[in-house]
Design goal:
Layout lengths: L1 H22 L3 H21 L3 H25 L4 H35 L12 H11 L2 H22 L11 H6 L2 H4 L12
Helix pairs in contact: 1-2, 2-3
């Protein structure tokens, strides 16, 4: 009973923060409400005993992606009037997509309530251990291919965005190691100046 009430509280916070993400007038506030939505979704996943997914959501999305979004939104000069113009124009499509998602959730929850009961897990069950066992045995080849594709994508992104500027100054460590004293220091013989 207590878990049900906690689920409803987190669900209400998640719905409210999701609505505030869309309706927030300030983009920074929208990003912060999205961070709250991610934390609340992670808490709901903890209630459903999906610890690995909850930790992954917090570490990957809140810890990396949302911080990047927050920095981008704060550094860009966003024209708020142009951002607000598209809200009413895109509202019908958003309502259709939201309606489809609601129907899917009702079908999933209806099957769980009126269908068969989910299998009970044993006392020492760990979904992280079970996920790792399946991922590194049955899907090991697919996992390695995905890792290689991500590595290639990272290298390609760096190669595409790397630009050498002529006006930028940089150090050449190889040239610094090869330098000799005669190349850097020059002794000049000057006449001594005397005060008159």
């Amino acid at each position: 009973m207590f878990e049900t009430w906690v689920f409803f509280i987190f669900g209400a916070v998640l719905l409210a923060s999701g609505v505030l993400v869309v309706t927030a007038r300030n983009p920074v506030h929208g990003v912060l409400f999205l961070v709250l939505a991610f934390f609340t979704a992670a808490a709901i996943w903890l209630l459903l005993r999906a610890e690995f997914l909850a930790i992954t959501l917090v570490v990957v999305y809140v810890g990396a992606v949302m911080v990047l979004f927050l920095f981008v939104v704060m550094m860009l000069d966003i024209n708020l009037e142009r951002v607000r113009e598209g809200f009413w124009r895109n509202l019908p499509l958003a309502l259709v997509v939201g309606g489809i998602m609601v129907v899917e959730m009702v079908l999933i929850l209806g099957n769980r309530i009126f269908g068969t009961a989910p299998a009970q897990t044993p006392a020492g069950y760990s979904n992280t251990k079970a996920l790792g066992r399946v991922l590194y045995t049955q899907y090991a080849f697919a996992f390695e291919i995905a890792a290689v594709l991500l590595l290639v994508a990272i290298i390609a992104a760096i190669a595409l965005t790397l630009r050498k500027r002529k006006d930028s100054r940089y150090q050449d460590p190889a040239g610094q190691v090869r330098v000799r004293r005669q190349d850097r220091v020059r002794l000049v013989s000057m006449k001594a100046e005397t005060e008159k």
